[in-house]
C-alpha cells in the first residue's frame, strides 16, 4: 500500500470510531509511518486514536503528537484528579490494594508502585484513563520478578505458535533475568501487539524489549 492509501484508511478508521471526535485530528504518512497531530478533549480519546490507527493495514509505525486539551467542565484541579484516581485504583479488583500511588502535576499523571503481573500494571492505567482533566499518563509501575518453574522462553514460544493469527516462524525470543527480547520480522503492526501480549502473559517477565520489524 502507498502512503496516500494508508492515510485515507487511517482517516476513515478514525471517523468510523464513535468514541472519539476526529474533526481536530490530523494525519500524515511517510513510508508507512503515521503521525497523528491536533487535539482531543480527553486522554482516553488520545489512546483510542492510537489504538485505531495501529490496527490499520500497512501502518509500520506511529508518532503520537495529539495534544489533550480539556475544555469547560473537563478542567479539574490536580488534587481532585489525584483523589479520584486513587479511588478508582482502590475499587479496581485487578489492582492489588495499596500497590500503586498517584502523582499529578498540571494534569500530567504518574503511576508509581510495584506489582507482580503486567495485567495489573495495565489495569491501573485503564482504570484512570477515562478520567476528565488528565492530559497524559506516565506508567512507571514496576513489575516484581516472581520466580516460577519452567522455561520462560519455551512458554512464550509455545504461546506464539498457538496463536492462529500470528506467523511465529520469523520471531526470535531471548530471555535474561526476566527481560524478554523479541526480534525478527512480522507482517503487521497488529502482529507486534499479539507477540508482546504473549510475552507479557508469562509469569516472571519484568520487561519486554520489542525489536520486531514490520515488513
Report on the structure:
With 215 residues, the protein is of the alpha/beta class. It folds into 3 domains: 3-68, Histidine-containing Protein, Chain: A; 74-143, 2-Layer Sandwich (Histidine-containing Protein, Chain: A), CATH 3.30.1340.30; 152-214, Histidine-containing Protein, Chain: A, CATH 3.30.1340.30. The chain has 6 helices and 11 strands. It has helices at 3-16, 43-54, 78-91, 118-129, 152-162, 189-200; strands spanning 25-30, 33-40, 61-64, 67-68, 100-105, 108-115, 136-139, 142-143, 171-176, 179-186, 207-214. The strands form 3 sheets. Strands 1, 2, 3 and 4 form a 4-stranded mixed beta sheet that branches. Strands 5, 6, 7 and 8 form a 4-stranded mixed beta sheet that branches. The protein has a 3-stranded mixed beta sheet with strand order 9-10-11, with helices on one face. Helix 4 links the parallel strand 6 (108-115) and strand 7. It is flat, with a radius of gyration of 19 Å.
Number of DSSP E strands: 11
The CATH topology of the largest domain comes to Histidine-containing Protein, Chain: A
| Shape call | flat
What is the count of distinct domains?
3
Structural class: alpha/beta
Number of helices: 6
* Main beta-sheet annotation: 4 strands, mixed
